[in-house]
Amino acid sequence: MKKIALSILLALSTVAPSTGSAQDLFAREQTAADLDDVYFIAQLKVDDMEAFQNEYVPGTAALLGETSALVLAVSPAPTVVEGAWDSNWTVLMRFETQADFDRFYKDDAYQAQFVPIRTRAASINNVVLLPAFDPAQFGRQSQPE
Q1: Bridge partners of 46?
Q2: How far apart are the C-alpha atoms of 87 and 109, rounded to whole Å?
Q3: Residue 107: Cβ within 10 Å count
Q4: List of residues 6+ apart from 104 with CB closer than 8 A
Q5: Residue from 33, 29, 54 nearest 98 by CA
Q6: Among positive and negative, which fits the CA dihedral 60, 61, 65, 67?
Q7: Rounded-to-integer distance, Cα 59 and Cα 57, Å
Q8: Please, are residues 13 and 22 in contact by the beta-carbon 8 Å criterion?
């Protein structure tokens, strides 16, 4: 995994877009607050769109409204650049902190009331959380085996 990431970085370093070099992608200034951000990605294959839209979305939106969540992108049909993306609902959100994400995701009402609706309504429920990219820490994070 580490070799793949380093290969990607090396490949990017040879590309020089008209607005600057690839190194600029990693040299852009980030504030300490930016580094606290976490990014939530959900890839769902919703089979019961009516239940999803009428039961899950309104309740979840109300809970998200109590957090720093910012919906960055939502698409029923994202453009697949490589590989397979067997879903019909993809969401990308940013939270200002891991604690803020946890306040939403670990909320008793969300877990007891809304997660069961989502898992019933969707046959694919892939959900991941990514930390903000910190160039100073790149390569120092533990890699999966």
Answers
A1: 122
A2: 26
A3: 17
A4: 63, 64, 66, 67, 69, 95, 110
A5: 33
A6: positive
A7: 6
A8: yes
Give phi and psi for 11, each to the nearest 5.
Answer: -65, -40
As given in the structure block, the two tokens for residue 109 are 């009402």
Q: Is the pTM of this model over 0.70?
A: yes
Residue type, 47: D
Assigned CATH class of 31-133: alpha beta
The residue extents of the domains of the chain are 1-30, 31-133
- What are the angstrom distances between the C-alpha of 51 and each of 57, 59, 97, 131? 9, 12, 30, 31
Dist CA 52 CA 115 (whole Å): 11
Residue-wise pLDDT tens digits, 100-142: 999 999 999 999 999 999 999 999 999 999 998 877 776 665 6
